[in-house]
Amino acid sequence: MGRGGDRLRRAVRRRRRAASAGLAVLAAALAVVGTAEAQASKGAAPPEVKPAPAAVRWVSAPVRIADAATVRLLRPGDRVDVVAAERAGPPRVVAAGARVAEVPDPEKGVGDAGALVVLSVPRDTARALVGAGAVARLAVTLC
Q1: Is 56 helix (H, G, I), strand (E, B) or coil?
Q2: Is residue 61 within 8 Å of 128, Cβ to Cβ?
Q3: Distance CA 139, CA 84 (A)
């Protein structure tokens, strides 16, 4: 046989492997179902399946801090609390113990707009930071 015979043999081998893998998965599934049914028939309560805890998703959140000189003190890896100072009420902590991921070079000609810092925080905290940054001046304290 020539090349065609080799191709046919390889195709048959691949199908055999796929069929073997499928049968192995089916056997494992039947074994699990069989043990649960056996326990239920003996009067034992079926095993309780607990949902996986919600994974905390960490994101990088760029935050503009009002005092640029304070941001120059920060280094990647530092821990900071982010405080929002609103005109109407007392200051409040928006993010506690946030890790500094990056301190970008200061922009030239920005003036009194503050400085940018990138924080690694949970997704919900990032949303709170964005909301607070839109209505209040943000400051950081080193932890």
Answers
A1: coil
A2: no
A3: 6
Q: What is the pTM of this model?
A: 0.58
The most distant pair of C-alpha atoms in the chain lies apart, rounded to whole Å, by: 88
User: Closest Cα partner for 61 from 135, 113, 132, 127?
Assistant: 127
**What is the per-residue pLDDT across 27-61, written as a single tens digit (0 to 9) for each?**
777 777 665 555 555 666 666 666 656 666 899 99
Q: Are 133 and 83 in contact (CB under 8 A)?
A: no
Alpha-carbon distance of 9 to 5, in angstroms, equals: 6
87, burial (CB in 10 Å: exposed 0-12, middle 13-18, buried 19+): exposed
Residue 84 token pair: 């929002």
Q: Are 128 and 95 in contact (CB under 8 A)?
A: yes
